[in-house]
């Protein structure tokens, strides 16, 4: 009898172990309490001074719920990485059969603009476009994927004409240039940005599409490329800085196309790329107005326009609050010079590109800081020329798969051109 009791106890323990193992075998990181929340996605853009319009056509947006290993979402196409924001990896990867929006595969469509064509330059300084909202299982999501469309919608563009392409730019002369996506249209923009959705939560995320860094002209062919740089901002954890730019004259005049950015600086960081990070940027509109959406934290606010003294000030952003910061720029009588050069890469591929961050030391709120005063995105074989106030600058050059290069001690004097060519072996 005693042996029978022992056998039954062992059998019970074994059965419970099997049940527990099976209940956890899915590998999903969904909330153990179950439930659902709502995910809303909005689209904004950082303005660009040199173009009249940047049109992109969006088909769908998907999210992937995390498993115990994210290997199931890696399609083995690592070599197709596109231009990446310093805080966000953006990849262009081919769709597979498992990424069809089927929740059983871990992928689910959260927005279906149905190939709506957006002018990114209309989504600046506080203007947003809602992509969609959907109810999802509570849990941790490891990735967002944005699928571009290959056919534009039927709306008119800024020239009151039909869209000639699904993705294209309109130059200042109102000419059209198609934007080529390097990996083709059978692909998705992969945003590796995890987020948690809790039971009953209404989570709003903003896709901040930076057109100034996403549109690149190929150096040899002259083709315009779309190499998306996108930040993801959690609106629950964000605030804003807004204001009006004017000159310091009497009466003050509103200034258009002033570069305004929120930056963080860490000179102790050994990685030159991370010593200065631009967390958000825009250009003031025709009324001198600007607005930056930022996650809570401490920043250096930088405003610059050629012919004016650089403005910089330390500022703290709090969640749910908007800071009013009007800026009066002082005329710079010192004149300006130029910094120019060419980009040469050993790959020989004119679709490869390099980001140039042009920096100088400035006094911001009585603190000496390194700030970015200009940035340029240049493809292999291309040339750049940037107008700068007299002073000493450095260039930090970076690109996908390339070792970051720094060129310090570049002196700019009024009325002259300083040349600095950049090579990557």
Notable features of this structure?
425 residues; mainly beta; Immunoglobulin-like; 3 domains; eleven-stranded mixed sheet; four-stranded mixed sheet; 3 helices; 31 strands; disordered N terminus
Description:
This protein has 425 residues and is mainly beta. It has three domains: 36-228, no CATH class; 239-329, Immunoglobulin-like; 337-424, Immunoglobulin-like. Helices cover 7% and strands 50% of the residues. It is built from three helices and 31 strands. The protein has helices at 2-23, 211-214, 272-275; strands at 36-46, 51-65, 89-94, 107-111, 116-119, 129-137, 139-148, 168-171, 176-180, 187-192, 195-197, 202-210, 215-217, 224-226, 230-234, 238-247, 259-265, 276-283, 289-295, 297-304, 311-317, 322-324, 327-329, 337-345, 353-364, 367-379, 383-388, 391-398, 405-412, 417-419, 422-424. Strands 2, 3, 4, 5, 7, 8, 9, 10, 11, 13 and 14 form an eleven-stranded mixed sheet that branches. Strands 6-1-12-15 form a four-stranded mixed sheet. Strands 16, 19, 22 and 23 form a four-stranded mixed sheet that branches. A hairpin with a 2-residue loop joins strand 25 (353-364) and strand 26. The chain is globular. It starts with a helix and ends with a strand. The model is unreliable at 1-8, 10-32 and 68-100 (pLDDT under 50).
Number of strands: 31
Strand residue content: over 45%
Number of helices: 3
Taking all Cα atoms into account, the compactness measure Rg is: 25 Å
Q: What is the percent of helical residues?
A: under 10%
- Poorly predicted regions: 1-8, 10-32, 68-100
Distance between the termini: 81 Å
Q: Mind describing the biggest β-sheet?
A: 11 strands, mixed
How many separate domains?
Answer: 3
